[in-house]
Amino acid sequence: MAGITIGVAGETASGERRVALTPETCRKLIARGARVRVQRGAGRQAAFTDEAYADAGAELVDDSTAALHEADVVLCVQPPTATTLQQLRDGTTLVGLLAPQSDSARGEAITARNLIAFPLERLPRTTRAQAMDVLSSQAGMAGYKAVLIAAQLAPRFFPMLTTAAGTIRPSKVLIVGAGVAGLQAIATAKRLGAQVEGFDVRPETREQIESLGGKFLDLGVSAAGEGGYARALTDEERAEQQRRLAEHLKGVDVVVCTAAVPGRPAPKIITTTMVAGMKPGSVIVDLAAETGGNCELTRPGETIESGGVTVAGPLNLASAGAVHASEMYARNVLNFVSLFVTDEASKEGRLAFDWNDELLAKTVWPERTAPT
């Protein structure tokens, strides 16, 4: 059959509601000459109906095997199981948040089936790649949802209110980490009327925090590093940072932690002792729970109380906003696969990989070299 086949199955990871293909991006891929097969119900939890996919031109199939077995390109959010990967055709191209090195069975299956895997978390963070950056788009949703969770858990109003019973002072909210998630959290907390501060060891984030209406919390320690990420602090720097932060947390009502470095355990920033010094009724929402947490008391997937302080460690928060998270993710994926699913190549039934393109060469796993 002419043209390439793109397959999308329903996500099977616990709690995952997103989908890697929306009717909008489906229509655009079909316009390039691709054939798209979608498992029935794949988009249901993100509010995309089977009828919407069919109207976009997709072929609906009853199970994941039918959706993926004949596919030249498989799109996903979470990585398929090792069993599913072993059932793909030899040489299939796989695009998603794959984390191949975090699961040996998954990595072995990718290698055994000679899959051309593009773990999108490996995408270089360059200006050209911004429209493909799934980490950023999903972090924005997570930062937004984290503040809503904090507002729900907090036994206080966020905004200042003048009532017949007197004036209610605004909550003091501290956002730890000023990456995409942190900046969205600052903006959301500010919209809710809180008194917002942002803390990051990278001094260059001051302007970004202040542009959103937050106050930059300067603890006198800088950890500016390469590539926009923080470097590791020395023992002396960390001790001074913790001393000043512990003192400041005594007056904070809500903390949202977002500090993370891809591929590494989350840095421990808020210690058990710091939590013990916070006011009863204070709340910590730790977005870094999936990689260990920024708070020592964080339990991934749980909400606990310690000395009157609530500590929440929500997982996969982007999935909680499945509609818009899926729309952003699917557009990111469309922009990435457009590097090799071109109009001409697709209609000819082939994929146009240019291994001299750094976005492909630095994202693919295992790494490949351009032919000489």
Automatic annotation (TrEMBL):
The keyword Repressor does not apply. SMART domains: AlaDh_PNT_C, AlaDh_PNT_N. It catalyses: NAD(+) + NADPH + H(+)(in) = NADH + NADP(+) + H(+)(out). Pfam families: AlaDh_PNT_C, AlaDh_PNT_N. Its EC number is 7.1.1.1. The transhydrogenation between NADH and NADP is coupled to respiration and ATP hydrolysis and functions as a proton pump across the membrane. Belongs to the AlaDH/PNT family. This is proton-translocating NAD(P)(+) transhydrogenase.
